[in-house]
Amino acid sequence: MTESFSSVPPLEPLEGAPRISVVICAFTEKRWDDVHAAVASVRAQEFAPEEILLVIDHNPALYERLKASLPDVVVVENREERGLSGGKNTGVAVAQGDVVAFLDDDAVAAPGWLRAFSRHYANPYVAGVGGMTLPMWPGSTPSSELVAEPVPASTGTRPRWFPEEFDWTVGCTYRGLEAGPVRNLMGGNASFRREMFPVAGGFSSGIGRGIHRRPFGCEETEFCIRLRQRSPESELLLDDEAIIWHRVPTERARFSYFRSRCYAEGLSKALVTRSVGTQDGLASERAHALRTLPRGALRGLGDSCRGDLAGLGRASAITVGLAWTAWGYAVGRYAARRSTGAAPSAAARPNGEEPAQ
């Protein structure tokens, strides 16, 4: 008889290492297998988590189903406003660990993920550590198989036109982002000292997924900038050995989504700069736009000249992505100026659209 995951004793954390609580936020039954694969990957960590917290975003039926399906996981309902920020804040409030790590509900973590995070917290100035998020494109190992073996045998096929410089549009680490000190971490693969949340004030409910129809983001960007502004001595690090794989559904591998996500990112950045200021809010983006993207466009043109015609598509996608992001930012800034005194979330909510994840 095969032992279940819940009956297998986890490996003990290294002596003196922080206790890490892992928070996974879920909102839809459509990701049932994804959520179970994510949980399985945390159970399989070389460095045992203090606990696994699964926060359900205003979906009572899903809450009851997952609570019954995952009896060894702490399943709670989002106690704040609908959306990813509220779910993360709820997870932080419940967490018991010294460090709180976040994993997307449609991702799986490599076995050494938490161990890579833990080794940096011996430095008292390290407030947060993030990792490398690799895409699982359409055709990758299905989540139903990842429940039993949470390391993908196949990561699918990247669309040939899709530039690596824009992998952030599908929630993944992009070309140009290097290991070491960074301004902000990517929210689906990040960890923070629990004591830093009262300092920074938590994730803003006016920014990010779950409150707009468009694919907004940047709640973790705004949080990280605010953390550094309030605790200037703190450091945020990117460790390229803290690896997760993030699923990219077919609809997000299409150019229409790519363009929409770029526009929404511009709107999100307008909200971020309104909160934390333009200098901090756009510092990394300026460097990416002025250095990494031109190099990427030239690389694509060079590839096309060497016979890879898809290189022209990648160069074109970089140009369109940058233009649509800039357009979204301009629209967001204009909307913010017109909505004097309004909440940031209202500044870029298009024509009364209903919240959505």
Poorly predicted runs are 1-12, 342-357
Order of helices and strands: EHEHEHEEHEHEEHHEHHHH
Top-tier CATH class of one domain: Alpha Beta
Taking the alpha carbons of the first and last residues, their distance comes to 40 Å
Number of helices: 11
Structural class by sheet pairing and helices: alpha/beta
Q: Mean of residue pLDDT?
A: 88
Give a quick account of the main beta sheet: strands, pairing sense, barrel closure.
9 strands, mixed
* Broad shape: globular
CATH topology of one domain: Spore Coat Polysaccharide Biosynthesis Protein SpsA, Chain A
Strand element count? 9
Strand content: 15-25%
CATH architecture of one domain: Alpha-Beta Complex
Helix content: 40-55%
CATH superfamily of one domain: Spore Coat Polysaccharide Biosynthesis Protein SpsA, Chain A
Radius of gyration computed on alpha carbons: 20 Å
Keywords: Glycosyltransferase, Transferase
Protein name: Glycosyltransferase family 2 protein
InterPro entries: Glyco_trans_2-like (IPR001173), Glycosyltransf_2 (IPR050834), Nucleotide-diphossugar_trans (IPR029044)
GO molecular function: glycosyltransferase activity
